[in-house]
Design a protein that fits this description.
Elements (H helix, E strand, L loop, with lengths): L1 E9 L3 H9 L10 E11 L5 E10 L15 E11 L4 E8 L7 E10 L5 E10 L7 H34 L28 E10 L21 H11 L1
Antiparallel strand pairs: 1-7, 1-8, 2-3, 3-4, 4-5, 5-6, 6-7
Helix pairs in contact: 1-2, 2-3
Length: about 240
């Protein structure tokens, strides 16, 4: 089994970051997401919002994968989240429902309010293959490497939604304003607006066994995108 963990600190408040996470699809960097549907949503007796979504993703196999390893390139993913608005904590778990014999992938997201109005996001994921035929470790290594490589694109897409929410909150509310999330941003201006501040915390690690393994202390700081989120989103919409 392979394990990966990483923490990320945002300068935005918890309410904005948690909302952006729930609204992260669609975005220009998530073309692999074919659909995202809410199948249940309820307010628990404790006052938390519990949501279950079904996500359809597409992907590709590595060149070394045996022919017929999986029957199709799409995969169904179950996402279960719970938002506690009083405690300012959000938990989210995603796991694949098919191809589990080839590889099971489970990701846990924890978003909570930190000091000074900042927000801390912790991501943990594990990759477990039961395929056998001498390919188990190779499949797990591929899953871990693919997950780490896709993190940057996932962040870019998330930052676009995060910045759109920040911009919309700066706009005065008017009677008869559009209710659609995208429509409410069509009149936004400010092509020089900056992306939300964020800092990667040196807490990422991946191991070949359990979460108790020694951490990988590799750390990098991500630069802010050059163009505003709304400019990039408009370009994406035109191209589609």
């Amino acid at each position: 089994m392979k394990f990966y963990s990483q923490s990320f600190l945002y300068d935005d408040p918890w309410s904005i970051v948690s909302l952006a996470y729930l609204l992260r699809y669609p975005n220009p960097y998530a073309s692999h997401i074919l659909s995202c549907d809410v199948i249940s949503r309820e307010v628990t007796p404790a006052g938390t919002l519990r949501t279950t979504r079904l996500i359809l993703k597409t992907g590709s196999l590595p060149r070394w994968a045996p022919k017929g390893m999986i029957s199709r390139a799409e995969s169904w993913v179950l996402e279960e989240s719970e938002v506690d608005p009083l405690g300012k904590v959000m938990h989210c778990t995603t796991k694949n429902l098919d191809h589990v014999k080839v590889m099971r992938v489970e990701e846990h997201i924890h978003i909570r309010q930190a000091e000074n109005g900042q927000t801390l996001q912790t991501t943990e994921a594990f990759f477990l293959s039961g395929f056998g035929w001498g390919l188990t470790k190779r499949i797990e290594n591929y899953g871990l490497a693919k997950f780490k490589a896709n993190l940057q694109r996932s962040r870019e897409g998330f930052f676009i939604i995060l910045d759109l929410i920040r911009q919309s909150r700066r706009q005065p509310m008017t009677i008869g304003a559009p209710s659609s999330f995208l429509a409410s941003h069509r009149m936004l201006s400010g092509p020089d607006s900056k992306a939300p501040a964020h800092h990667e915390i040196p807490a990422s690690r991946d191991s070949a066994s359990t979460p108790g393994s020694a951490p990988d202390t590799s750390t990098s700081s991500q630069p802010a995108p050059a163009r505003s989120a709304w400019t990039r989103l408009k370009s994406w919409l035109r191209s589609g």
